[in-house]
Amino acid sequence: MAQVCNMIFYKTDEEIELIRESCLIVSKTLALVASEIRPGISGAELDKKAEEFIRDHQAEPGFKGYNGFPSTLCISVNEGVVHGIPSKDGFKEGDIVSVDCGAYKNGFFGDSAYTFALGDVSEEVRNLLVVTNDSLYKGIDEIKVGAWIGNIGFAVQEYAEKQHKYGVVRQLVGHGIGKDLHEAPEVPNYGRRNSGKKMKPGLVIAIEPMVNLGTRKVTIAKDGWTIITQDNKVSAHFEHTVAVRKDGPDILTDHSLIENAIKNTSNVKEITIKS
Ligand code: MG
Ligand code: MG
Prior knowledge:
Layout: H1 13-36, H2 43-56, E1 60-61, E2 73-77, E3 80-82, E4 96-105, E5 108-117, H3 123-140, H4 150-163, E6 167-168, E7 174-176, E8 183-187, E9 204-207, E10 210-212, E11 218-220, E12 227-229, E13 235-237, E14 240-245, E15 248-251, H5 255-263
Antiparallel strand pairs: 1-4, 2-4, 3-12, 4-5, 6-10, 7-8, 7-9, 9-14, 10-13, 11-12, 14-15
Helix pairs in contact: 1-2, 1-5, 3-4
The structure holds magnesium ion (MG) (2 copies).
């Protein structure tokens, strides 16, 4: 799912508020998912609830129909990295489930993802989730007017790959977002400091580290959509839509809504919630 136009569209303050509105719907949808997801429920059931919720908020699912994608949510289980199609099979105790959601309202998209741990997972998997979520914020911390986009990926890679020896996916990257779901510039989760474009106020980007327990290499599953790890080890994915402001990053999606929902259910482990 790559963008087609190389031009960067900087957003006005009014446009950023419209993107924030779409992002809030996405965050609330993921909070609904957090409260409903459990062993036994299927991705298809969650997808139906998510679509109803988005439409009830006078918005449209951002992914459904995008390049032919059939669903409202991308649900990628265990070795699934991203772009999984919700299936009718129930989740199992110990699964980790990455849920990616987009919404479109008032002409603008919002985009966010979160990975849920269902029941008990190993210490190894727990650590992957914590590090992937933390790497997202390491990337966001690099947002500063005049700094280079490459600094974001450098920070993610430095933390997840160099310090923690996980595999940072190369083939899929974060992106600009606005009137299109995927706009320029690309926002890789790897790279060098002081490379790429310089950040200017009004730039709105989705930052989305995809981090694998084993190899960074991925392949496409038989369904033609789901990106899976080549070694079938698990993968985690967290994503925020963020605006670049004069005084730094403005995170437009809100994971606290998801994390509050997790605190109120016993079906999802509170692994990535900071105390
Ligand atoms: Mg996404
Ligand atoms: Mg995205």
